[in-house]
From TrEMBL:
GO cellular component: cytosol; elongator holoenzyme complex; nucleus
Lineage of source species: Eukaryota, Fungi, Dikarya, Ascomycota, Pezizomycotina
Region of interest (Disordered), ranges: 265-294
Primary localization class, coarse: cytoplasm
Family, as annotated: Belongs to the ELP5 family.
GO MF annotation: an example: tRNA binding
Entry protein name: Elongator complex protein 5
Acidic residues bias spans: 275-284
Keyword Manganese: no
Amino acid sequence: MPPSAQAHSRSHALLLLQKLLNLRDSASPLTLVLDTLEQSGRPVIREFIARAKVSKSKVLYVSLATLRKPAGVDVFVKARGKSADALRAEIVSHYPSGAPGHAHKVLVVVDTLNPLCASAPSQLPHLLSSLITGPAVSLVALYHADVPVVLPRSFGEYEPHPLTVLCHLATAILRVGSLYQAIKRKEARDRSLQEPEWGINEGREGVLIGLKGREKLSKEDGDGLVVEMEVRRRSGRSVGEKFVLVPGENMSLASKIALLSDHPKFKEPAGDDGGAGDEGEDAETTFSLGLTEKQRRDREGIVLPYFDAQTDIGAGEGGRILYEMGREDDFDDEEDEI
């Protein structure tokens, strides 16, 4: 890919994530955030809420695991123990009527979809689709990918898993990971070692410590989390890229977003241009690759083997091979006849 096209693709991916977080032009009606026990996706949810408040959008927070109303939320809806129809009616009742002075955009945040997947997996697609009543409504839902979901007995064995259905319905998927773990995996790959594992993937008995027990990153590396974006276009084509999100200390401070490839630990070394560098520059090696003046004169004075065959010595005789036998050669009469 040419450098100009590569730079355009990188800039386009960064602008697409900004557009998704800012809820501009209905970039994604349904955004699914996938996190793990090792790295929570709540910083991404807080980023959505903070940007929604800047754009004066109304924020509805549907709580299935959260006890207290988060900062920046306009309406806090307790969904625990409610049926799908009752929950939908309560959420839609808080939508603005469109009168002057009301925010036209609405951000609906679901703190976790795991309880809904366990209690009503068959009704979940209809519930999420019914909440998106127009282009002004954006739904952001969090799903814990490594938390097992106990499906009801009425759930058919041939029906797809709720997570598969959610990934099919979502127009944007944000997979959240730990920056510290991504750096350690990158260092292992560079040294041709097996990538380390954390949490459940370690296969060790005991309590999961998670990120609380991780080593601190250096000041040069910074802190943050890795966000892998996948946005589905209307044409069916998907756009994917990995970013580093460094959340602000509070909602008033803006977060920092950059491409993962621009991080100091993930930058590729500056490659050469195919050996077309300056003639006077030598490579950084333990031995000299250059030639002295005497070695250069000796090389120019060497007569190549069969050099006489390159001259035209007559009609039809050009290109013949001239060979002089040495004392160590074994002459064979049969080969000479052939």
